[in-house]
């Protein structure tokens, strides 16, 4: 009997050490108890190492035709690595850099990659694409070649706010200055170039309360200390970023208003600023203002008492940037933003000087009264006011320019004073006003009149000045009384109540009158100019028996008697003296002519002056009656005999 071997099959199975199939089994066909030909078997599997080779124990086909013979090749999975890169773009996806050091995940071929231990959350950033992680769930079998998984991140939007608080003089409750729109986590923080300028307020300083809770003198210093955005929003809004080979991820933004931070006001909480443009925790820089010291001062110009600067009144800036007063209900308001009131003088704001003497008595402050002067007050608003009280009522809030004082200029103007040049009753022309002159208080007196106007022929004069002293000339008086005084001129009248008088008083010089008889001066009398001429001699003294006479008077006329001549020329003239003497005396000249009508001599009898003697130029005139008394009757007869003989002879001659 001849036997033929039956057909047998061998199934080569590839599995890992856990019994997991690594690839499809390979079927080999042969005959019972025939040698198994493994030549077609490729035992190498990428990522795996053969650790148990079933071929070594199964060299021949079995003889069990009822079952398939199995040959198992057992493999050990090789170690594999996945490198995870954390990619961040800060320019919207144009360039990418590592956010953190790459992470290495280790496993074995075809094993599941465990990402659970991987740190994927980074403050300030958000994972915006993890698709490669999703796609790479198992380790590959490429021995010696690491797998790379890229996780893409975008920076979270960050916002910085610059604002003012309730101390802002320009806006009640403060206002936003600027909000950044290009900030991202840990990026460089900056505001617009004009931000510091926009914080400036005239007359105020400010400090910046930074997001770090520290005060800074300038915005620049605050930014230097907080140079980068933080990374702490909770909303996870990110900067729009284009992922490689993807479209931009558009994320919505939220906006809100930041609460004011008023470090001087406890009701403001800088830790809860609100939501700004998608940033739940914006970095807030808050400016808080303090008024600067200001000053007002009153000073005088054209002050007759010498220009003065009164003590400076000090306070704090009281106007906002628009030159409006800080309202009293403002958080910024202080009472020192305006002048205080003058003590005991209601309604008068205090510049350390007052208008009137009554106000001085009440307050103890100096006043602006200057006799002979009025004044106006030019206030810092450019307007003029009649009094300092009116000026300070108009301007009593300190301005916002600490670089200079607010000036109240008290400008004096002299009132018109009066000077009179007058003569008194001694003036031969009669008392009169020679000149009235007006001039500003304390200015130099200038007169049209001079000493030539004051001269009176036959008189000397002196001038009594306003100082009460006497001067020989008006010029000398003016040398000692140079300026107008400064009387207070009543507003109602505008008239100087006490003018300065230069009073001219005259004194007559001694004039001379001569009585001349037959070419001889028998009497010389003197008297003041324009005073009455009085000779000792009378017409009875001039009587001469057998003669008539006339008296030639100084007026060029002849009169029948001395009495008539004196009636016509009763007064001395008023010649100026030459070397102290009257060079042209007044002469009364007696001219005799023989009396032909009267034969008998008459015996002159002085009815008016019987018993009295007359002396004319040293000669004594005696009446006939006086001669009888002096020499007796006999003597008188003897004296009369020659006259009788003369008269008898004259009669005889006439008869013949």
TrEMBL record:
The organism's place on the tree of life at top rank:
Bacteria
Q: Where is the composition biased (Basic and acidic residues)?
A: 596-609
Region Disordered: what ranges? 596-616
Which chain regions cross the lipid bilayer? Answer: 631-649
The keyword Membrane is assigned to this record: yes
The species this protein was found in:
Pseudolactococcus laudensis
Which controlled-vocabulary keywords does the entry list?
A: Membrane, Transmembrane, Transmembrane helix
The name under which this protein is listed is MucBP domain-containing protein
